[in-house]
Amino acid sequence: MLPKAFFDRPIAHRGLHDVTDGRPENSLTAFRAAIEHGFGIELDLQISKDGRAMVFHDYDLQRLAGTSGAMCQRTADELADIPLTGGSEGIPTLADVLKLVDGQVPLLIEIKDQDLRLGPNVGALEDATAKDLTAYSGPAALMSFNPHSVMHMASLCPSIPRGLTTCNYDKDDWLLVPDARREELASIPDYERTGACFISHQQDQLDSPRVRDLKANGAAIFCWTIRSADQEATARKIADNVTFEGYMPT
Question: Most buried residue among 78, 166, 178, 207 by CB atoms closer than 10 A?
């Protein structure tokens, strides 16, 4: 079950980021700002060449760090020396973030799919994540688009709440995922078997029979990504809390 802290305040998507103010997404600066305002933090994990859990959204470094190559081709120390675009700090490890947050606000941790087809080829990033979380006592929850990842975390960290990141899996957004797999996942078939207690669903797809059914049967419903007060008001007709960016919730 999710701790109450996950419902008290909105959750800052990749931290309270604003690159015009020197706070890139998934940066320690963005996380400090979220803590200062009392918002929960959503963050993403990728893996480094030397098997460390790194806080970064994309597989490739270009968009967010202005350099070529994949995250998994660089060590954690090398990634720490690459400044995030629009900021002065390098790419943090999960351990760095856990030390900074230290239980002050809840952490919603998304493990990015390493199989690339949302299949069973997972393990290394999950193992690294579990290692870092072993001694962490603050409120945290784990989620992934890949149910295999969530199942793996269930075996490693059974006491940490877990959920599924979900959507309708439109083909244009999931070009590498086979059609049959996309169609299967759209019905959120793995909720019960993963031991999930929540989903985080695409905000403009909340009004679906499956989401409403899950909510009626006790699932907590979060959503991504809210970008205005009007969107938040609409989402909260179904969602228990929102992940936001680009504006300041009241």
Answer: 166
Which DSSP symbol is given to 69?
A: S
pLDDT in tens, 163-198: 999 999 999 999 999 999 999 999 999 999 999 999
Cα torsion 69, 75, 76, 77 to 10°: value is -110
Q: What is the pLDDT of residue 64?
A: 98
Which residues sit opposite 107 in a β-bridge?
41, 140
pTM of the model: 0.98
> What is the total residue count of the chain?
250
Structural domains in the chain, CATH included, are 15-105 (3.20.20.190)
Non-local CB neighbours of 134 within 8 Å, separated by 6+ positions: none
To the nearest 10 degrees (0 to 180), the angle between helices 94-101 and 28-37 is 20
**Nearest-5° Cα angle at 3, 14 to 165:** 45
| Residue that the structure tokens 């193992």 belong to | 127
